[in-house]
Amino acid sequence: MGDLACIARRRRCALTGIEIAPEAIACARQSAAQLGLSNLHFQALDSTQFATHEADAPQLVLVNPPRRGIGAELCDYLSRMAPPYIIYSSCNARTMATDIARLSGYRVERVQLFDMFPHTAHYEVLTLLVREV
């Protein structure tokens, strides 16, 4: 939440954070309060449940799903809502590749691998997807 909060503070944009774990939401709210940020909104629920009930298309979507990926329903929603940018962070490149294949109308602009757990098989992959016009 730290980097996103700094971006929101500088850009004065609205930011909605969705996390399945209520504890993570409590930490995010505490961080936002400590930083004096009021344009952030957090909800503890499943991201697919949240997204599929939203009518407005966001300008940017950042997803960091569990190992299972975001799944077909959220991919379909994102393809329909067509945000200009999706940042996809994943600890499972296979499910990320499956999800990206489901996202119609997007191209992979950039991919970065992060070895956050040296000497293990675990990694993070960050991918920037851009909507093709």
Q: Architecture of the largest domain, CATH level 2?
A: 3-Layer(aba) Sandwich
Low-confidence stretches: none
Structural class: alpha/beta
Order of helices and strands: HEHEHEHEHEE
Q: Would you tell me which CATH topology of the largest domain applies?
A: Rossmann fold
Number of individual domains: 2
What is the CATH C-level name of the largest domain? Alpha Beta
User: Which strands sit side by side, in order, in the main sheet?
Assistant: 3-4-6-5
CATH superfamily of the largest domain: Vaccinia Virus protein VP39
The proportion of residues forming helix, as a percent range, comes to 25-40%
Overall 3D geometry? globular
Instruction: Let me know the number of strands.
Output: 6
Separation of termini?
Answer: 30 Å
Number of helices: 5
Explained architecture:
It holds the Pfam family tRNA_U5-meth_tr. Keywords: Methyltransferase, S-adenosyl-L-methionine, Transferase. It comes from Klebsiella pneumoniae. It is an enzyme of class 2 (transferase). The structure is a single chain. The protein is of the alpha/beta class and 133 residues long. It has 2 domains: 1-45, no CATH class; 47-133, Vaccinia Virus protein VP39 (Rossmann fold, 3-Layer(aba) Sandwich). Helix content is 38%, strand content 28%. The chain contains 5 helices and 6 strands; from the N terminus they run αβαβαβαβαββ. It has helices spanning 2-11, 22-35, 47-51, 71-81, 93-102; strands at residues 15-19, 40-44, 60-63, 85-90, 106-114, 124-131. The longest helix has 14 residues, at 22-35. The protein is globular and about 35 Å long. It starts with a helix and ends with a strand. The mean pLDDT is 87.
